[in-house]
Amino acid sequence: MSGNGRTTGGVRLAELVAALSLGIDLGFGQPMEHVLRQCLIALRLAERSGLDQESRADVYYTALLVNVGCHSDAHEQAKWFGDDLSLKSSKYKHGMHGVRATASGMRSLGGTGNPPLHRFRVGLEFAISGHRELDDMVTHHANVARSLAEQLSLPATVQEALGAAYEQWDGKGWPKGLKRDGVPVASRIAQFAEFVEVAHRVGGIAGATAVARKRSGTQFDPNLAKLLNAHAKEILDDLDSVQTWDAVIEAEPTLTVVLSDEQFDVALRAISTFVDLKSPYMLGHSEAVADLAAAAGSGMKMPAGDIQLLRRAALVHDFGRLGVSNAIWDKKGPLGPGEWERVRMHPYITERMLHQSGTLSPVGALAVTIGERIDGSGYPRGISGAAISRTARVLAAADVYQAMLEPRPHRPARAPDEAADELRSEVRSGRLEGDAVEAVLIAAGHRVRRRKEGVAGLTAREVEVLRLLAQGLSTKEIGERLVMSPKTASNHIEHIYTKIDASNRATASLFAVQHGLLPEWEPAR
Question: Mind listing the domains of the chain with CATH numbers?
């Protein structure tokens, strides 16, 4: 291990999770390294609490992953409140509970800045049915975080702590209403450190100790509040000067976890699936691009190392989406100039998330080029010609082709032949490179759809409903698409939820991705 926090061998799990946390920061309207700083605070509290090394390791990963599930229903948050990033950032002002937190959300219902009539219509729809989508939102966030920890093979104690990360000392938290010492200590410390970090960044030591005193005995463990007040200077004073990334990577308790190539790829796939949950229009997109790009690279006889890098870059290329509101990603109308600039920045955010890790940095350096075009018309840097590598050209072509096969807010999915024609027109216009495009199309094989059915006892009709539900369609829209009444569509959804043990769209979407129930493709016969 070198002094800059980088390994000479495989990637450390801590690096991968820490890199993901940088995107989670932006998804909460916070500056990058908010989560890393809260992790340092949590570790210092854990040490002063006398926790052993294994318990401190639980605190470490719980603090890094505590909010990782909060983007998974960003579609619903943006649908009702306009900007999911602003909505999530408000919790640091109003807390997780109480009248003011609810009032803050209700004031933004329909999206601040939208016309009064639009906000009235959204408010009416919310009152009739939409509130059900938000009732279990915080519980769902904890369950998603716990699920990701399981897929990353983190200890059961970390999974338990993440599942209880929104519980409160007074028993008024989620999902089980645990109280006092019934809340895992890692959960108590991680949540406390999260709010303390924001308060300290905004108001210094005085602000941090004030929020600790104010919520002591209600949201926060009073013992932690006392500990912070007694040792605030030692715990908080150097946070503005420390090299945060290096400090967090070096501070990993117990033996460091270094991933093998196979484990690294499994972890990247798991994280890419969770990131794609941010929008129903993107479910399974990253993994599909990865498979297509790798197959195209193999067809072009690329070296094995280049194919591996290509696959990994495809898996991470949309990590930066976490930093852009779903009010943009899920917008059905045309994007304004400012919105387009946000879209054009998301590959750059991906690169910045990964650049501090010696192993992840090359993956990010390729992923950032996914929007670049041969004629210089792409983004984020507008590079052109020979400056775009062979692997980058394949990655771009695979992304464009796969995106056309998927529905978007402003258009339906395109047929494979139509997508192939459009891809070749991009070559004629000088935007994409011909060999890369042909390799992607050969790998695609002018493919036709195939569906898997029968998982969890789902009928063929229920699979159809599940796929539309995962795309973010309302009950009414599903009924119209499948020529059935809204009541029948609602009944199908309830049956699906029961069979797959889901409670909302995001949970059902994750099930669909993990069990291969989204559209697949096979060569035409």
Answer: 1-256 (1.10.3210.10), 261-445 (1.10.3210.10), 455-523 (1.10.10.10)
